[in-house]
Design goal:
The structure is a single chain. The protein is α+β, with helices and mostly antiparallel strands. It has helices at residues 12-17, 39-48, 65-76, 102-105, 115-122, 141-150, 183-193, 209-220, 254-266, 282-291, 329-336, 356-362, 393-405, 416-419, 425-431; strands at residues 20-24, 30-34, 56-59, 80-84, 87-91, 124-128, 153-156, 160-164, 175-177, 199-203, 224-226, 232-236, 248-249, 270-274, 294-297, 303-306, 315-317, 341-346, 366-371, 374-379, 387-389, 409-413, 435-439. The strands form six sheets. It has a four-stranded mixed sheet with strand order 21-22-1-23. Strands 2-14-16-15 form a four-stranded mixed sheet. Strand 21, helix 13 and strand 22 form a beta-alpha-beta unit. Helix 2 packs parallel to helix 8 (209-220) and helix 7 (183-193) packs parallel to helix 8.
């Protein structure tokens, strides 16, 4: 099934004015929901437009804050952009890289993805430090070390980063070994090396679905890439990207799909998820099956989720793909409040991601944060409506899940965090029967 238009709602400017969600709990979710395009694929695809000397066309691009900020950054550099009904046409062939807006860059972690393509095309970039979710230390060490290993001259301060290719010296090493399985560092290397007509090897590369999809996109345009969910990527770039007429469709967001699976399991209803990619959900579905979530994969690869009253406690350990994704850990934490027994959570990636449990405890959860990477949740416990605050994208959506099953009214503030990663979530939930509204 091809991508559909997103639900009609207010403009992005009006959306940004709303600071709170008010949710009445206890209403079952019933109906169908269309899963939007992957946020973490859309932003590197937008950054990739800098590599091309002609316009690109993308379908199923999520209309979320992070995408809007990324587009605004490029627009202020001179890119021509048309974005409507999830269809994006972007021409970055005549940008001025010296017009990077530091205020916008500092709001968005994905702005780090501009380094690779700008450096490849202009041999120099200076930008302010990128922003993003406050979920722990996220230094650019892995990115900068990778560029240094290739022979790129780098300079970093607390305010900015600067990279330059020495024109007198060609890139040195043919093999880059990343310091960790960093998704954005892997994507930066892919984007950078795509315009260099030599063979390179990236080791300890991330293998997340959005990395695999970025590789698929670059291969369509002539870049020689050999990888299939592997942590070793062989790449040979091109002097000029091959032009294709067909638009590239942004794959559906597996994190949003997993979020709605949990919502369906906890709500006393039944929902159908459309526009999902089952192959990117196999590990998640395996874990959910062991927990006791009732789901069925339909012939058209849609997914039917039913209320699941007999949930069993388990251990949740986040890992790089194909392990259990960190993007679903907070939502699964809410699920754990309704499981029978003690759930152990080991968040291996971000030391700040467990902070949502402090807010969740205000609603009645019985959880203990052992240290920045480990927690236990004892269930089942009843949840009650409270006033809570979104800390980041994933904590914010987890609070929506909690509010949907809580007794009474929940008020969630700082909802711009949620809008950064979830497209029109209130409209989607209203269409399923939830009682949720935006307010200032």
């Amino acid at each position: 099934m091809g991508p559909q238009k997103s639900p009609k709602t207010t403009s992005m400017a009006e959306t940004l004015k709303a600071r709170k969600f008010i949710i009445q709990g206890g209403f079952p979710l019933k109906g169908e929901v269309f899963i939007s395009g992957n946020k973490n694929l859309a932003t590197p695809l937008i950054a990739s437009s800098i590599l091309f000397d002609y316009p690109l066309l993308f379908k199923n691009v999520p209309d979320i804050i992070d995408v809007q900020i990324m587009l605004q950054i490029l627009k202020e550099m001179g890119a021509k952009i048309s974005f409507q009904d999830n269809i994006l046409e972007i021409d970055s062939s005549k940008i001025n890289p010296n017009k990077l807006n530091p205020n916008l860059v500092s709001k968005l972690r994905s702005s780090v993805l501009l380094i690779g393509p700008i450096l490849a095309r202009y041999q120099y970039i200076k930008m302010s430090q990128p922003g993003g979710c406050k979920i722990g230390a996220r230094p650019l060490t892995t990115h900068l070390n990778a560029f240094r290993d290739l022979g790129v001259i780098t300079n970093e301060t607390s305010e900015s980063i600067e990279l330059k290719i020495d024109k007198k010296k060609p890139l040195q090493n043919k093999t880059v070994i990343l310091d960790e399985f960093s998704v954005t560092a892997t994507e930066n290397m892919l984007l950078f090396l795509s315009l260099i007509n030599k063979e390179f090897i990236i080791k300890l590369a991330a293998a997340e679905p959005h990395v695999n999809e970025l590789c698929r996109f670059l291969k369509l345009h002539g870049v020689n890439i050999k990888t299939e969910f592997s942590h070793i990527i062989k790449i040979k770039g091109v002097k000029k990207m091959k032009q294709i007429k067909e638009p590239f469709c942004v794959d559906s967001d597996y994190a949003e799909a997993g979020t709605f699976i949990i919502m369906g399991a906890l709500s006393k209803g039944k929902i159908l998820l459309r526009n999902i990619n089952i192959k990117y959900l196999d590990v998640v579905l395996s874990k959910f099956k062991k927990i006791g979530i009732n789901y069925r994969i339909e012939k058209d690869n849609s997914l039917k989720i039913a209320y699941s009253p007999n949930l069993k406690a388990t251990k949740i350990q986040t890992m790089p793909y194909p392990g259990f994704p960190t993007e679903l850990q907070p939502q699964t934490g809410v699920l754990a409040t309704q499981m029978q027994g003690t759930t152990y959570i080991h968040e291996t990636l971000y030391e700040g991601r467990l902070k949502y449990l402090e807010e969740l405890n205000k609603m009645g959860a019985n959880s203990i944060i052992i240290d920045p990477h480990r927690a236990v949740i004892i269930g089942p416990t009843a949840l009650y409506g409270r006033e809570i605050r979104s800390l980041d994208i994933r904590s914010g959506i987890s609070f929506i899940i909690a509010a949907l099953i809580a007794q009474g009214e929940t008020i969630i503030s700082d909802i711009d965090q949620i809008d950064r990663g979830y497209e029109k979530i209130d409209i989607k939930l209203q269409n399923l029967g939830a009682k949720i509204m935006r307010t200032n």
